[in-house]
Amino acid sequence: MTGAAPLLDVRDVARRYGGVTAIANVNMTVQAGEITGVIGPNGAGKTTLFNVISGFTPPSEGQVFWKGKPIVRLSTHRIARLGIGRTFQNLRVFPNMTVFDNVSVGALGHIGFPAWRALVPGVGQSRAQAIIRKTWEALDTVGLADRAGELAANLSYGRRRYLEIARALATAPELLILDEPAAGLNDSETAELAGLIRSLNAGGATILLVEHDMALVMGVCRRVVVLAAGRKIADGSPAEVQEDATVRQAYLGASDDGA
Ligand SMILES: Nc1ncnc2c1ncn2[C@@H]1O[C@H](COP(=O)(O)OP(=O)(O)OP(=O)(O)O)[C@@H](O)[C@H]1O
């Protein structure tokens, strides 16, 4: 643990859906510059935690601080603009739009482009240029620049995962939240993804990663938080959590943990 103030600080967060407690008493921090993993058996509450952090779900209890400021109850849009970008477990690619347009949607949401601005000479133009620049940068980072003009429907499943990452990158996130980015990828694609995650991190992005692929998590994360049945049961280095008896039990006890 470093003594520096965390970039993200999740405090005593709970989220209930009627009688179902998806997560409870969850505390965790993310330090700037780190790659932090969140693992846990199916239904452990990982996606719910990500949804709370990114504003897609309000917590029933608790607070989330971004650079020391509370962010719960801010809109997803505001949270994205503060610097938290995310991908989704289920791909949200628009198949009938080009690769470029799929990504520019992310840049547009971040930079903003109210319609009236397009009518003001100079103003509209500079915004449009910023959107185009951010879009190309993001496509370049994930290696999809040469396919910018193709329909997203033409991309393989693995490349669509990269497209989703590019869209999140186009919002210029300081914290990039990746929700099961390796789902559906084969071994070589997953190894390539590990390289991309490391290079994004080397380029300055702080990363929060939910994954079932243990080799990926243990290979790229410096810290791993383990959830089981909505509670945090471990938080430490990959070696520490792998040796943790409670973690082993949680996985052994899970009928289908996918790990
Ligand atoms: N909108 C919702 N309404 C009701 N229950 C929900 C809702 N979202 C999540 N839950 C429940 O909360 C619990 C945690 O779900 P969540 O999807 O966060 O787990 P997870 O760890 O991401 O699972 P997986 O690895 O299968 O994606 C589950 O019991 C789930 O059924």
From TrEMBL:
Enumerate the GO terms in the molecular function aspect: ATP binding; ATP hydrolysis activity
- Recall the taxonomic lineage recorded for the source organism: Bacteria, Pseudomonadati, Pseudomonadota, Alphaproteobacteria, Hyphomicrobiales
The reply on keyword Nucleotide-binding is yes
Q: Does the keyword Ribonucleoprotein apply?
A: no
Query: Which InterPro entries has this protein been placed in?
Result: AAA+_ATPase, ABC_AA/LPS_Transport, ABC_transporter-like_ATP-bd, BCA_ABC_TP_C, P-loop_NTPase
The ABC transporter domain covers 8-254
Q: Which Pfam families match?
A: ABC_tran, BCA_ABC_TP_C
- PROSITE patterns referenced in this protein's UniProt entry, alphabetically: ABC_TRANSPORTER_2 (PS50893)
Q: Domain of life of the organism in this record? A: Bacteria
Q: Which Gene3D superfamilies match?
A: P-loop containing nucleotide triphosphate hydrolases
GO cellular component terms given for this protein: plasma membrane
Name residues in a coiled coil.
none
Spell out the protein name for this chain: ABC transporter ATP-binding protein
- What are the record keywords, sorted? ATP-binding, Nucleotide-binding, Transport
